[in-house]
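**Fold tokens**
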Amino acid sequence: MRQLYSFYTDAFWISVKSIFEHKLRAFLTLIGIIIGVAAVVVVGASISGLKTYVVDKVSKVLGVNHFMITRMANVGNITDEEFERKSRRNKDVTWEEYEYIRDNCKSCSYVGAAIFAGADLDQDGTEMPSVRMIGVTDNMYEIEDKTLSDGRFMTREEVERAAKVCVIGADVKEKYFPNGSAVGRILKIRGIPLQVLGVEEARGSFVGESQDRHMYIPITLHNQMFARTGGLGVHGKTLLKENFQESIEESRLLLRNKRQLLGSEEETFSLVNVDEFNSQMDQFTGAIAAVVVPITMIILLVGGIVVMNIMLVSVTERTFEVGLRKALGATRKQILLQFLIESALLCVVGGILGLLLAIGVTALITFMLEITMTVTIGYIILSVGVSSIIGVVAGLYPAWKAARLDPIVALTQS
């Protein structure tokens, strides 16, 4: 055991000495491995960051543990035939159905409703076209985890009496009340003066569309101001994650019972939830990774070829050393292991340097673009592991060639 330990220790230090004797050559050899590992890790961090960015944006808009029942909704792509079939079959969700779900869903922490319309704002000569007018119940504040930068949200009493109040998005606030607080100010919609109760915190844009160009008004007031087209969206939420799926199934069953759908009949409504969107994002980012990561691995493969070439040069340079060691009793296996250890060590060092480079690049991108890029442990293991394997594979032929050298012939080549 001591002899075995001594051999590996000596082989390691001989490899280190060989690398440091040719520092520039070793560095140039490792550039391919360094860039390859860095590319894999940065790509992985970018994919992870993309998912985090999108999920964070969706969470700011929809909240967590949140589901919605409406006439037409879908997560992911559906065929034109399926869309047309749903469009013919599905029916608008009514106020009566919303109240039935609200009063009977025991596993739901909140059940609210929302309805959408569009309006062009024009006040004191300042126009703002295509503003989303969202009629909501008071508990949509909790359901969608809304955050206000100023003021408050509407109360249940204000919703019940269709109070002429509103909560505005950041874009609307900047357009009409750029200086000072908007709370308490008046904003006219279709000639009706609404008092501003609060301003929602800016949510930025998503896929090129601003998420702050909107106004919330009581859903009862919305029904008076706008035509009831498209039906309601019933929104449910649970405080506990473990109750989320139960609340979805209970709400689905309640609406099926309300519409007197038999067990074998298709549903005449759509139900979507945040978890389904997250699953779609997992599939989307997984598909990107499946295409991009193998491409970046090609850089590692090229780096491995360079390592093999340099190791062949090293074998040629050290022919006399190999012959001397074999003359002193070194076996083919020991010579083979000697060069494999050196090759693997080169690539492991390259993998570590590549990882450090990737961490620096991701930190710089995160700082400059304000997009969170997460270096995941999976991609670290993948890149460093693959670089180590490449080191062993790249060193196999040179090591085999060194182990096959005839000691007498090798000693004559000095």
